[in-house]
Amino acid sequence: MTMSRRLHVAIVGATGLVGRELLRLLEQNDFPLAGLRLLASSRSAGSRLPFRGEIIPVEETTPSSFRGIDLAFFSATSAVSRGLVPHAVEAGAVVIDDSKAWRLEPHVPLVVPEVNGDTLAHHQGIISTPNCEVTPLVLALWPLHQRNPVRRIIVDTYQSVSGTGWAAMEELRQQVRSILEGEECTPQVYSHVIAFNVFPHVEDFSDDGYTKEELTIIHETRKIMGDPQIAISATCVRVPVMVGHSLAVHVEFAHPFLPEEAREVLREAPGVKVVDDPSHALYPTPLMAAGGDYALVGRIRRDASSERGLALWISCDNLRKGAALNAFQIAQELLARNLI
Amino acid sequence: MTMSRRLHVAIVGATGLVGRELLRLLEQNDFPLAGLRLLASSRSAGSRLPFRGEIIPVEETTPSSFRGIDLAFFSATSAVSRGLVPHAVEAGAVVIDDSKAWRLEPHVPLVVPEVNGDTLAHHQGIISTPNCEVTPLVLALWPLHQRNPVRRIIVDTYQSVSGTGWAAMEELRQQVRSILEGEECTPQVYSHVIAFNVFPHVEDFSDDGYTKEELTIIHETRKIMGDPQIAISATCVRVPVMVGHSLAVHVEFAHPFLPEEAREVLREAPGVKVVDDPSHALYPTPLMAAGGDYALVGRIRRDASSERGLALWISCDNLRKGAALNAFQIAQELLARNLI
């Protein structure tokens, strides 16, 4: 198949962590670009970013930024997405949005290409890429679910500070230095010191005692797996890691599932790499996952608390497959399916 | 009640992290000491530690170290405990052992005083203090279990490097410095870099894919709760925290349990402090727990995956209530019950 069509692309949030990963992906891959517009908040507008040997200015995002744009990647806050995505769609762009603003809207496909790329066919201009914890979770669980239906998921997370952004990474660096020097440190980005600490607080709390991040995992996983009956519980925890989110997962299936069988299924699964040789201390870690394109899955074993259960451990680069790479793959999928 | 009896006490592993906490506890509290002998490996023998204004020499532990000793605290490796504890008992000492060597022996009480102090009555010279994750777990679950029987526990841990010892704390410090300077670092204590990383590997792996730490949680929790039927699963994870272990816990009970009711029960529970006001970003963290005497419990909420479930989050100082303080409280309990 030849893809002769070339696209005018915009990146909203181009100066952010995910925006820069998107730039790198567009640069490294043979994506059919006709033009590239870099957009950001007024604060970042005026800066310049290198791309394929050129220097591209970063412009402020406004409702009229999308004239002539075919494809817009949004990696900004929910408020920005909620406000500006409709303008991009009205201007004729297809939007791939990384925020949580549109993910649960019934008319918006929430897509991990390896899992539910076929739902792209019904898009109405907006496509969402899931939460950075949900993408690795469904990459690992979907192929198992095809073999033996998933009934219940309990997941506890170990989330890196890059999920929050630049400022959080800088705060972790500075706090670590201060503490090693025996100095006091006052948290700015988070409610608590993150250096040499962990806390069960990712995104705001809702009234039922769950954080929005935990509810996100519950609702997005059900939507992508296409099964609102799956029981899910989660505790989301921030850890002093720069890049790479990890998940301890306990899954119950309709029937017993041998760990060896699950390992075989996952070895064939797209987007997944099995790293599971405990006798050689081989299992996923965020340092190992960072910079890579896969959800790394290991510690695959019987769940000791359930005859129909498996326990496993996942690490994934939250900026790449957890965000930018997945959005980029959605764009590739749209091209391959002639949906843009 | 007057406790006129004064005891000749030995600490095996006096120079280690837990040994030093024990020294501090003996110093700060009105413990009826007749004498104190500090013991360690041949490597640490010859050093001196201050205690109540004196300087006490550290001697090498040998089978004959326990002559005249009434009470011996062991905080050493399992191999050391297995080899030397019988000599201490033969010499007439009561041993409170912090290693995993004796914990699951049927004739050895495995004791958290707030939970099962009454099992001390049957001791035959050896008493074990549980794994540093198990103590906070049973402190939180036991009072709930009295109200509504626990059927199933899923726990994922966030364990600090002090659980491994001095060398691991120093390794974390050095690795953090190296990484901030952009230098390479080679792990010595652990199989992987721990700075800015996490890994699901605490203690060795057994053949079924579980680590010994995970199996320890399963077996010790059942023994202390006195119910071999409780289904338990665990993933144990090392995180770059200096002191303080945390646990994400999902519990199923025989009947539904309202979060408000559980919170009330835990507010009255000995050894527990409820820290649970998410609207003010109040929940336990290891930094908050470090140096304190309690298992801090928060994030108490309905488990979203079970009608009979609760989810909660615990942080506890692994060196104090997780080890030294619990051992010390066992000694106090022995005195109070005239069992020594």
Short overview:
The structure is a homodimer of 340-residue chains. The first copy, chain A, is an alpha/beta fold. Chain A has 9 helices and 13 strands.
Summing up helix and strand content along with how strands pair, one would put the structural category of chain A as alpha/beta
CATH homologous superfamily label of the largest domain in chain A: Dihydrodipicolinate Reductase, domain 2
Percent of residues of chain A in helical segments?
A: 25-40%
Largest interface: A-B, 58 and 58 residues
Query: Which regions of chain A are unreliable across 5 or more consecutive residues at pLDDT < 50?
Result: none
Indicate the topology.
Two copies of one chain form a homodimer.
Chain A: E1 7-12, H1 17-28, E2 33-40, E3 48-51, E4 54-60, E5 71-74, H2 78-90, E6 94-97, H3 113-116, E7 126-128, H4 134-147, E8 150-158, H5 166-180, H6 212-225, E9 231-235, E10 245-253, H7 259-267, E11 272-274, H8 286-289, E12 295-302, E13 309-316, H9 320-336
Parallel strand pairs in A: 1-2, 1-5, 2-4, 5-6, 6-7, 8-9, 11-12
Antiparallel strand pairs in A: 3-4, 8-10, 10-13, 12-13
